[in-house]
C-alpha cells in the first residue's frame, strides 16, 4: 500500500500525447517503407537498391528510436531509476547500430557506383549528427551508467545532457527532411513541380516527420510532465546538499 501511495500520478494529458507521438512515429516508418517500395523499387544490399537502406535505417534509428529513447523518462515515471536508465541507453544503442548500417549502406553504394561523398548540406549535417549522437551516448554512459561517476558530476552534467539530447534529435529530424528533399530533386527533377504522386507522398512524409519531432519536443519541454524524483534520488540529493552546504538533515 505504501509503494502505491508513493507513486506519482500520471498527468492526465501525457498518455495521449505519448500515444499520438507513437502513432506519428510508426506512420513515418511505415510510410518511408511504402515510399521506397512503391516508387524506389524496395531495398536490397547487393544491388542498385542498396541506397534505399540508408533512408529507412536513418528514419528508424535516428528519428523514431531516438525519439522514443528521449520519452522513456516521461513514460516510465515510477519504475526504478536504474531500470529506466538501462532502457534509455539500450534504445540509443539500437538506434546507433541501425543508423550505422544506414551510413555504411550509403557510403558503400557511392563507392560501388563512383559517386562523390560528403559534398551536400545533407551529408555534412548527417555526419555532424552521427558524430554528436555517438559522443552524447559515450558521455552519457560514462556519467550515468558507469559506476565511477560521482553524484555531484552527474548533477552538474545532467542539464547539458538533456539539452544536447533534444538538440541532436531536432538536428536528426532536420537532416532527414534535407535528405528527403535531396532525393526528390535527384530522382524527379522538374517533374517534382508537377505534383507527381511520389512527390506528394514524400511531402506528406516530410510533414509527418516534422510533426513527430514537434510532439516529442513538446512532451520533453513540459516541466510538469518531468519524471518526479524517487525516494532514493531525494536521499542522494539530501546527502549531497549536506556535504556541500554543511546542512544537517535535522536542521530543517
UniProtKB/TrEMBL annotation:
A Pfam family annotated for this chain is Cytochrom_B561
According to the UniProt entry, its GO molecular function terms are: metal ion binding; oxidoreductase activity
GO cellular component: a single term: lysosomal membrane
User: How is this protein positioned relative to the membrane?
Assistant: Multi-pass membrane protein
Query: Which InterPro entries does this entry report, sorted A to Z?
Result: CYB561/CYBRD1-like, Cyt_b561/ferric_Rdtase_TM
Cofactors named for this entry: heme b
Keywords associated with the record: Cytoplasmic vesicle, Electron transport, Heme, Iron, Membrane, Metal-binding, Translocase, Transmembrane, Transmembrane helix, Transport
Positions in coiled-coil regions: none
What catalytic activity is recorded? Answer: monodehydro-L-ascorbate radical(out) + L-ascorbate(in) = monodehydro-L-ascorbate radical(in) + L-ascorbate(out)
**Does the record carry Transmembrane helix as a key word?**
yes
Limits of the Cytochrome b561 domain: 20-221
Chief location bin: membrane
Q: Does the keyword Repeat apply?
A: no
Q: Which domain of life is it from?
A: Eukaryota
Transmembrane feature ranges: 12-38, 58-76, 88-107, 127-149, 161-180, 200-220
Where in or outside the cell is it found?
Cytoplasmic vesicle, Secretory vesicle, Chromaffin granule membrane
Function summary: Transmembrane reductase that uses ascorbate as an electron donor in the cytoplasm and transfers electrons across membranes to reduce monodehydro-L-ascorbate radical in the lumen of secretory vesicles. It is therefore involved the regeneration and homeostasis within secretory vesicles of ascorbate which in turn provides reducing equivalents needed to support the activity of intravesicular enzymes.
Q: What is this protein called?
A: Transmembrane ascorbate-dependent reductase CYB561
Amino acid at each position: 500500500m505504501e509503494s502505491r501511495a508513493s507513486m506519482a500520478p500520471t498527468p492526465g494529458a501525457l498518455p495521449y500525447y505519448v500515444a499520438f507521438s507513437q502513432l506519428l512515429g510508426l506512420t513515418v516508418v511505415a510510410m518511408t517503407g511504402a515510399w521506397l517500395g512503391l516508387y524506389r523499387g524496395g531495398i536490397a544490399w547487393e544491388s542498385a537498391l542498396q541506397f534505399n537502406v540508408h533512408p529507412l535505417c536513418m528514419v528508424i534509428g535516428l528519428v523514431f528510436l531516438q525519439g522514443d529513447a528521449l520519452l522513456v523518462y516521461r513514460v516510465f515515471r515510477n519504475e526504478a531509476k536504474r531500470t529506466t536508465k538501462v532502457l534509455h541507453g539500450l534504445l540509443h544503442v539500437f538506434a546507433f547500430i541501425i543508423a550505422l548500417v544506414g551510413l555504411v549502406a550509403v557510403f558503400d553504394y557511392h563507392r560501388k557506383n563512383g559517386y562523390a561523398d560528403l559534398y551536400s548540406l545533407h551529408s555534412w549535417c548527417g555526419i555532424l549528427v552521427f558524430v554528436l549522437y555517438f559522443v552524447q551516448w559515450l558521455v552519457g554512459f560514462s556519467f550515468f551508467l558507469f559506476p565511477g561517476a560521482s553524484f555531484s558530476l552527474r548533477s552538474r552534467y545532467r542539464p547539458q545532457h538533456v539539452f544536447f539530447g533534444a538538440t541532436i534529435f531536432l538536428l536528426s529530424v532536420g537532416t532527414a527532411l534535407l535528405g528527403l528533399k535531396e532525393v526528390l530533386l535527384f530522382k524527379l527533377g522538374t517533374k517534382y513541380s508537377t505534383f507527381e504522386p511520389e512527390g506528394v507522398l514524400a511531402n506528406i512524409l516530410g510533414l509527418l516527420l516534422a510533426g513527430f519531432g514537434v510532439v516529442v519536443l513538446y512532451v520533453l519541454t513540459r516541466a510538469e510532465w518531468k519524471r518526479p524524483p524517487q525516494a532514493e534520488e531525494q536521499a542522494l540529493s539530501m546527502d549531497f546538499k549536506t556535504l556541500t552546504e554543511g546542512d544537517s538533515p535535522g536542521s530543517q
